Amino acid sequence: MKTKIWAALLAVYLVWGSTYLGIRFAIETIPPFLHASVRFLISGIFLYTWRRMAGDPAPTARQWFSAFVVGSLLLVGGNGLISLAETGMPSGVAALLVATIPMFMVLVEALRKGGARPSIGQVAGLLIGFSGVAVLIGPAEFGGTRDFDLLFGGVTLVAAFSWSLGSIYSRNADQPKSTLLFTGMQMLMGSIGLIIVSTLKGEPASFSLAAVSNRSIFGLLYLVTFGSLLGFTSYAWLLRNAPVSLVSTYAYVNPIVAVLLGALFVGEKLNARILVAALIIVGSVILVNLARKPAPKQAESDQTLKAG
């Protein structure tokens, strides 16, 4: 069992950490929201059909509504905005900003009615973490030249916040017993929202299939097969067979993997600002997770999609 756990964990570490680079490749010649809609439509059809054929009961209308809300927050507001942000910023930097999701979740949980108040350790983690964000996207005095527009950094933080809202909402939402079925439903509902946003932005009208590069096709196929299917299947299995504290370590590893892959394969800068910010942000996420208060098993097992 231990071998299977570490194999699945390694898949989550590497696959989810590499999705930011996959997005970078896909959006080179495919518009960001259009690429995301295709990715999750294909993945959603596969997961939903598979689980229904495997015997999972048909979802109720309330469960489809839950999937619509969660899918919109996670995939349209989350993944869609991340894809948009990567059109103007390095994939590794985007991954570091997305690593703030656990911090935003603590804030959202504290502010919602009946939510858990953060511990002193979590408050310290929040302050440290957002100081790392300031280093990453702040002025030159905070750590040297910033090689991307501040607007894209803001878009990524909005995406992380939207992801946090969706994750918190999903905990009490009416959903099927099957995690994978609900994931497929989220993908299907999210893909509809992404198609709508893509159409409103005029992406289909300006898109040329003949202009799509092989690298973008590879990126999209990688995101569908590895990012959306293999990665989440491994994650869902881990939630049932490994301690949540161990599974949650992906949040520390993914941004580091993304930064290294971006520097290795597309020459993204790996300067002092990024290295210092990475240490601060990842360290703060570790502190926030270690300092969290004991929670009921259902609340701890946040079985939602991952941003990337």
Care to give the gist of this entry?
With 308 residues, the protein is mainly α. The protein is built from 14 helices and no strands.
Your description of this structure?
- The protein has helices at 2-26, 32-53, 61-85, 91-98, 101-111, 120-137, 150-172, 179-200, 203-206, 214-241, 244-247, 250-266, 272-290, 297-300.
- The chain is an all-alpha fold.
- It has one domain (2-300).
- In percent, how much strand structure appears in the residues? under 5%
Count helical runs. Answer: 14
Total domains: 1
Which regions have little confidence, pLDDT < 50, spanning 5+ residues? 297-301
Please describe the topology of this protein:
Blueprint: H1 2-26, H2 32-53, H3 61-85, H4 91-98, H5 101-111, H6 120-137, H7 150-172, H8 179-200, H9 203-206, H10 214-241, H11 244-247, H12 250-266, H13 272-290, H14 297-300
Helix pairs in contact: 1-4, 1-10, 1-12, 2-3, 2-8, 2-10, 3-7, 3-8, 4-7, 4-12, 5-7, 6-13, 12-13
Give the key terms.
globular, about 300 residues, 14 helices, mainly alpha
